[in-house]
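User: Teach me something about this protein's shape.
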Amino acid sequence: MDMPLVIIVGAGPAGLTAALELVRDGRMRPIVLEASQEIGGISRTVEYKGNRMDIGGHRFFSKSDWVMDWWREILPIAVADATVEIAYQGQRRKVGSGDTAANGDDLVMLVRDRLSRIYFLRKYFDYPIKLNATTLTNLGPVRLLRIGVSYVWAMLFQRRPERSLEDFLVNRFGGELYRTFFKDYTEKVWGVSCDRISAEWGAQRIKGLSIVEALRHALRQRFGGSARAQATKTSLIEHFLYPRMGPGQMWQEVARRVIEGGGEVRFGQQVKGMRHEAGRVVSVLAEDAAGQVVEVRGDHVISTMPVKDLVAGMLPPAPADVRDVAAALPYRDFITVGLLVSRMRANPQARSGRADNMPPDNWIYIQERDVRVGRLQVFNNWSPDLVADSGRVWLGLEYFCQEGDDLWRRGDPAMIDFAAGELEKIGMIDRADVLDGTVIRVPKTYPAYFGAYEEFPRVRDWLDGIGNLWLVGRNGMHRYNNQDHSMLTAKLAVEAILDGKTDKAAIWSVNIDDDYHEERRSAP
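Assistant: First, the predicted structure itself:
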């Protein structure tokens, strides 16, 4: 008797997690269909002349014990980091205990210091915003007074019904702080005003953060407090795990184990459609690199492909209203410009401590209104092994755009020159110190929460009615899941399949009631 077959669309974190869980169980065989020639989706590592890029930045941190242990089983902690403590599941634990690897082994996780700051008014602000001397000095007395008055007004007299992201943010920070640190940046990221973005976005991405929380954290830092209290919000963690060679290293190793365990990973397989009959998918249609369409039959399908493309390819077609909503679902696309520089400009607030003036941040939110760059990654601070020459600074400038707009169409040399010019304009580098650069474009990186998204339940209900089709991951669910959330949706889908269940409610509950989210402000 042939083993039941599970077709998995996409070799990103969700798809590969599902594949490995199926291989480990042994009752069903997974076939992963991946459109590209790479592993990891947006969690892949891109290499350029020996320098490695992490697309979007991936901190390996979760409040799920299952996820943390899963990661650590794939890539153990380096011995040098064995005594470092990291907070998860509300506790501080020695992450290296019992699972350490040799220092010289590339297949290891490092424990990295967490630091993200905001760059605004050509100055550095702590993130989350802290009520310390740096913040007070940078803002100045007039701006501080306006922030305080508007916060009190919002708390006591003008609580808004939360229909939009703007309502959500003003209710927690007051109008002046919202306009200072959230409005322009968020609109730079999404390309629409905050009053057009669903309040659900705030609930998913920055739930639990507020002025009150910032005050509590400041007091805990100043006077101490319980480890459990200090570890409550993901935004306040001080360390995270990170694969020595970048996030793609994790998923390359997972793919290797899937294949070793009897599963398949087929590259260059662009899924174009799915045939369904009597409430079940019967086959998946994929186009290979030569343009030939191959039909793969299976017993279950786990999909991480964009919902827009999935619905468009259903045979027979989905109902007209479902097709219309799915076709109009919004996405935000993404460009990373890698710049290799010999040095950065000196800035006393950067806290560099290096001759090349490199700041210690993992990433820096560029709040400045006169440039289009949204965030700056310092790849050296994710892992020293991401940089071919330790004497160079390897930067990633992140631009949020729409496929086909002026940024997307700009040629690579022009885009590199544009990005270097923006960093020079805001005083971070001198263009003459740029040694090399590259450009990475990623379509449909961020499913968006405005426009047709309001009607998304129609699409979800119709797709959920197909009993053996399971939507998981970020694009698969049109939900801004973090890496760990995507893994948990895959785990739950596999458990349901193995248990013979068809209810998908548990999968959709992931990233709804969690009391933490990876710190990314109200943006990627």
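Now, about its shape. The mean pLDDT is 88. The longest helix spans residues 133-156. If you'd like, I can walk through any region in more detail.
User: That's plenty for now, thanks!
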